[in-house]
Design a protein that fits this description.
Elements: E1 2-15, E2 20-26, H1 34-46, E3 51-52, E4 55-72
Length: about 80
C-alpha cells in the first residue's frame, strides 16, 4: 500500500468565445508566487501562444495549485 502526493498548477483562461481553456503544469516550483504565475499567463495571452476552437485567449479566469493524495489500496500479485 503506497501513498503518493502530487501537485498541479492549473491556469484557466477565457477565450474569445467566452469558453474556458485550462493549462496545467505538473509539479510546479514550491516557492512560485501568484505574481509570477499571473505574469506567465499575461505572456501567454499577449503572444497568442495558444489558439483554441473558441478563438484566442483573451483573459485570465482562475489560478489554482491542486494537491492530490492517492492511496493505492490494492495491487494484484
Amino acid at each position: 500500500m503506497a501513498q503518493v502526493t502530487t501537485k498541479t498548477l492549473r491556469m484557466v483562461f477565457k477565450n474569445e468565445n467566452g469558453s474556458n481553456f485550462t493549462l496545467t503544469v505538473d509539479n510546479p516550483r514550491e516557492n512560485i508566487t501568484a505574481q509570477e504565475i499571473q505574469a506567465a499567463m499575461d505572456t501567454v495571452i499577449t503572444k497568442n501562444i495558444f489558439t483554441t476552437s473558441g478563438g484566442q485567449l483573451v483573459s485570465k479566469q482562475d489560478i489554482k495549485i491542486v494537491d492530490r493524495t492517492t492511496n493505492d489500496i490494492y495491487d494484484p500479485q
